[in-house]
């Protein structure tokens, strides 16, 4: 990856709908090599996918919770089973495996505290092998960034 690829990635991270023609102009290349670079970044897996980021409040999501999970048993099968189960629950936005006191951290998005309580009672509590969970309710979001910093110099 060179500085032109870095510039392309920085542009696309801010707005994945920027036309290739505009990107080409901004990185001082013609259309075809710019398009080919973007395709290569996609095919090589550097660009995983392009998404639209929504404003959660405008779609009724007003509560975020980070839930720390400790499993009772930590065998390979139990870890794999837990991960498969949580990947299928739509309210869970992110699952992170941790070292330290907790085994996992889940980012959960719901409408309000009542819907989170329903989630805990009817979904989280039904996942086998959870020993303990600890919920941290998000009071406010100070920074919410999706773009990685990619240096554009050689």
Describe what you observe in this structure:
A hairpin with a 6-residue loop joins strand 2 and strand 3 (104-110). The protein starts with a helix and ends in a 17-residue tail after the last strand. It contains five helices and four strands; from the N terminus they run αααβαββαβ. The chain has 154 residues and is α+β, with helices and mostly antiparallel strands. A four-stranded antiparallel sheet has the order 2-3-1-4. It has helices at residues 3-14, 20-27, 31-43, 76-87, 113-122; strands at residues 63-71, 92-97, 104-110, 130-137. The protein is elongated, with a radius of gyration of 20 Å. The mean pLDDT is 95. It has two domains: 3-43, Winged helix-like DNA-binding domain superfamily/Winged helix DNA-binding domain (Arc Repressor Mutant, subunit A); 56-137, Lrp/AsnC effector binding domain/regulation of amino acid metabolism (RAM) domain (Alpha-Beta Plaits).
Describe the SSE topology.
Layout: H1 3-14, H2 20-27, H3 31-43, E1 63-71, H4 76-87, E2 92-97, E3 104-110, H5 113-122, E4 130-137
Antiparallel strand pairs: 1-3, 1-4, 2-3
Helix pairs in contact: 2-3
> Would you tell me the overall average pLDDT?
95
Distance between the termini: 10 Å
Which architecture of the largest domain does the CATH hierarchy give at level 2? 2-Layer Sandwich
| Run of helices and strands | HHHEHEEHE
> How many alpha or pi helices?
5
Strand content is: 15-25%
Q: Tally of extended strands?
A: 4
State the shape.
Answer: elongated
Report the CATH superfamily of the largest domain: Lrp/AsnC effector binding domain/regulation of amino acid metabolism (RAM) domain
Number of folding domains?
A: 2
Give the CATH level 1 class of the largest domain. Alpha Beta
Low-pLDDT runs: none
Strand order, largest beta sheet:
2-3-1-4
Reported by name, the CATH topology of the largest domain is Alpha-Beta Plaits
The helical percent reads 25-40%
Main β sheet profile: 4 strands, antiparallel
| Rg estimate, integer Å | 20 Å
> What structural class do the secondary elements suggest?
alpha+beta
């Amino acid at each position: 990856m060179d500085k032109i690829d870095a510039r392309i990635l920085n542009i696309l991270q801010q707005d994945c709908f920027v036309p290739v023609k505009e990107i080409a102009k901004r990185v001082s290349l013609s259309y075809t090599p710019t398009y080919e670079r973007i395709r290569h970044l996609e095919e090589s897996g550097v660009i995983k996918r392009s998404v639209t980021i929504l404003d959660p409040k405008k779609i009724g999501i007003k509560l975020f919770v980070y839930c720390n999970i400790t499993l009772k048993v930590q065998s390979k099968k139990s870890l794999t089973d837990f991960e498969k189960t949580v990947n299928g629950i739509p309210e869970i936005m992110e699952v992170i495996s941790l070292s330290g006191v907790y085994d996992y951290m889940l980012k959960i998005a719901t409408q309000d505290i009542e819907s989170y309580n329903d989630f805990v009672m009817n979904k989280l509590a039904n996942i086998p092998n959870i020993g303990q969970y600890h919920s941290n309710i998000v009071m406010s979001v100070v920074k919410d960034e999706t773009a990685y910093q990619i240096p554009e110099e050689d």
